[in-house]
Amino acid sequence: MPGSRRIDPVTDLTRWRLTSIDGRRRWHFISIDGTLEREQNVLEKYSLGLDCSDEAKKLPDAESAAEAAINGMKFFSLLQADDGHWPNDYSGPLFLMPGLFIVLYITKTKLPDAFVKESIRYLRSVQLADGGWGLHTEDNATVFGTALNYVVMRLLGVSPEDQDLVKARKLLHHHGGAATIPSWGKFWLCILNCYKWEGMHTLFPELWLLPSWLPAHPSTLWVHCRIVYLGMSYLYGKRYYAPEDSLILSLRKELFVEDFETIDWPAQRENIAKIDIYTPHSWLYSMVFGMLDTYEPFHSSWYRESALKVCLDHIKQDDIMTNFISIGPISKMINMLIRWLEDGPDSKAFLQHVDRVYDYIWMGRDGVNMQGTNGTQIWDVSYAAMAMLEAGAGTKPEFQEALRKAYSYLEVSQMVESSPKCVQYYRQYNKGGWPLTTRDHGLIVSDTTAEALKAAMLLEEKCPFIGSEAKISRERLHEAVDLLLDMVNPNGGYSSYETLRGGEKLLELLNPSEVFGDIMVDYTYTECTSSVLQALRHFVDYDPKYRTDEIWNVLKNGLGYIKQNQLPDGSFEGSWGVCFTYGTWFALEAFACMGQNYNDNTASMQVKKACAFLVSRQMEDGGWGEKFASCSERRYVQSEKSLVVNTSWALLGLMAVRYPDEEVLSRGVKVLLDRQIDDGDWPQESICGVFNKSCAIGYTAFKNIFPIWALGRHAQLYPSSPRTFSAESVSDKDWEKIPHV
Ligand code: LAN
Fold first, then answer.
1. What residue segments make up the domains of the chain, in order of their start?
2. Which run of H or of E encompasses 556?
């Protein structure tokens, strides 16, 4: 991801190597006395921002969408790892490195020096001009981002006199100092012994002892929320503080405007900087936590101990089920600290945690950062395969190897068995599904399962060169279908990891995070539902004898659910990509797979309205572009410049339903052609992913995958269309490019 400032590398970039085994990516730095066993490959050079023009050569100019797609695929195939996936940077959130480095500091776990230096470089590169850090790389400064990343810099050895830190401290103090940090920040500072637990609302571990039918029982929460708060509650219950040392004592002076010893801690529970708040505490929250905070000083220690035992058991089980990766980066580090505390620094559990830290670390163009997850392997592989197939790669020998490898990655990553303890630990069973990342991670998602299933079927159908010995058995595909049929919600829609279990409206009123929106339950999403519909609709043709009636039922209800999500302007809001272009693309694919095209008699007004929405947002140059603010403000906010990813999504949506105005499409295609780089790559533009409404996250491979896909689809629909421009959209510069007869 582009940082806000360029900082020169602080290590010898030519000594970094990446390995990837069954999707498990790991960066290594070969020290000066170590031997470089092999040359750096193009993927490594590209990821590090080094020159790779020896491998990624200038390609002949593309004169048509088909040619541009081929150039795009030639380039993109160079970035595929041997295990078949496309390793890439998945950064953006700026609240992950603090967890990593606070836990490494407390547990005295050292990262190699090169990683430390490059982490400092990364943090400097994403520091804002005013000295602060935001919640994510495209955010303004917040106390959460600034205080915690300041702490990281200090833990990594940067002096408080460093000019960047002087600036950061000034900004932090201007906003009231670290006392005003939101609750997740209060949590990390407590752990580090730079805040007091009395400064937080209770995390009430006893919740885990309550009967599971109660509305706010942990089992009803979104799995990410559940697991993060599980570990937080445990450490809260233990009132864990890192042992004081001189650095901690110094941080207590640096971070606060007031004297640490005199702070009125209970008064800090509601003291949250205004610039940080996305979801203010509701009346219900204040009422419930008012009561719980009153109970806290009188809690029964026996009851608390029993609750902590249950929590620890769930934490251990999370470690087992995810092979110590945990569900995400926050709980990963919390669990690791807890296993260090409870099992000891030499325990197998703790050492396995240490080993898995690297699964989250990426060395990118701006240095080392902690990733949003241990990758996006399945998501990228499935989309890349489908994009390439639609661009005709299946019939081109030069791309067979890439497709074969992609298929093999899908094969090794499907979950072949469920833990027998899924129910006991409130997990969705996972046999037959695909996780977002690797089989080791283990947590399946409805839409990653659906996209992987669809990609696997298409690869089988279109790539006869994939030998039968390598194939995923029919039985395993049936298991994927079974899982999807089981995951449907009563409203016909699909959630992400599990079915919707809780009362969304009520629980969201209890959102304690302040900085995120919609984190409490696993909502139903247009995107997840559309992916499942597309996969199941394809499956009915692929295998017309398997559970067909049930599938049709799900398809019908699913489309009904999606229809309800259309907004008055015709758009659909996206929850995982930026934003209305993303959501509308998914909705249109769902209509299309159900046979509702623009000009068909069966097409509903809704298809036309969705297309009209997209067309109304086409920019002067023919492209589309949405700012991240669309997600947080929940209204369409156009970017200054059109963007290749948004343009591709809009084109894919329109073409999916066969939008008839060719002119609209060719103007969009022209943007993709013009923006393509000589070697077939596209530029990395603004961030295109989101979660929980407020946090941006970058999908680096999207800038390659989606243009290839849109161009491929266009080339198929309009095979003879050369690089044409309409008179109105042609600038003077363009006229020079058009061959004049
Ligand atoms: C992701 C990334 C992928 C994403 C899609 C598959 C795109 C989506 O369609 C379903 C939800 C899912 C799997 C998803 C859920 C939330 C994640 C895991 C993330 C956005 C990546 C990072 C984020 C996670 C919650 C970050 C940790 C932060 C917390 C607030 C706990």
1. 61-89+595-640+647-741, 97-370
2. helix 548-564
Single-letter residue type at 460: E
What's the chain's Rg over C-alpha atoms?
A: 26
pTM of the model: 0.95
Q: Which phi and psi (to 5°) does residue 52 adopt?
A: -125, 35
Q: How far apart are CA 147 and CA 176, in angstroms?
A: 11
**pLDDT value of position 734:** 40
Q: Which stretches of the chain drop beneath a pLDDT of 70?
A: 1-4, 602-603, 722-741
End-to-end CA distance of the chain: 43
Active site residue 8: no
The pLDDT score that the predictor gives to residue 215 is 82
61-89+595-640+647-741 and 97-370 share one CATH topology? yes
Residues 6+ apart with CB under 8 A from 624: 581, 614, 617, 618, 642, 643, 646, 647, 649, 650, 668
61-89+595-640+647-741 sits in which CATH class? mainly alpha
- Pairing type for strands 624-626 and 638-643 reads antiparallel
What was the pLDDT predicted at 403?
Answer: 97
One-letter amino acid at 84 equals G
Strand partners, 93: 136
Q: Which residues line ligand 1 (CB under 6 A)?
A: 224, 228, 328-330, 372-373, 379, 436, 445, 447-448, 496, 516, 527-528, 576, 691-692, 697
Q: Residue 367: which of 7, 715, 113, 740 has the closest Cα?
A: 7
pLDDT at 389: 98
Q: What is the pLDDT of residue 257?
A: 97
- Catalytic annotation, pick one of 83, 139, 380, 447: 447
State the pairing for strand pair 361-364/367-370: antiparallel
Assess contact for 186 and 195: CB atoms under 8 A.
Answer: yes
Cα(461) to centroid(ligand 1), Å: 30
Which residue lies with its CA nearest to atom 25 of ligand 1? 224
The CATH number assigned to the domain with range 97-370 reads 1.50.10.20
Cα separation, 304 vs 369, whole angstroms: 37
pLDDT given for residue 722 in this prediction = 63
Report the pLDDT value the prediction gives residue 726, as an integer from 0 to 100: 42
CA–CA gap between residue 493 and residue 507 (Å, rounded):
19
681-728 confidence digits (pLDDT tens): 999 999 999 999 999 999 999 999 999 999 999 999 998 776 544 434
Distance (Å, whole) CA 157 – CA 155: 5
Burial track 181-204 (b if 16+ CB lie within 10 A, e otherwise) = bbbbbbbbbbbbbbbbbbbbbbbb
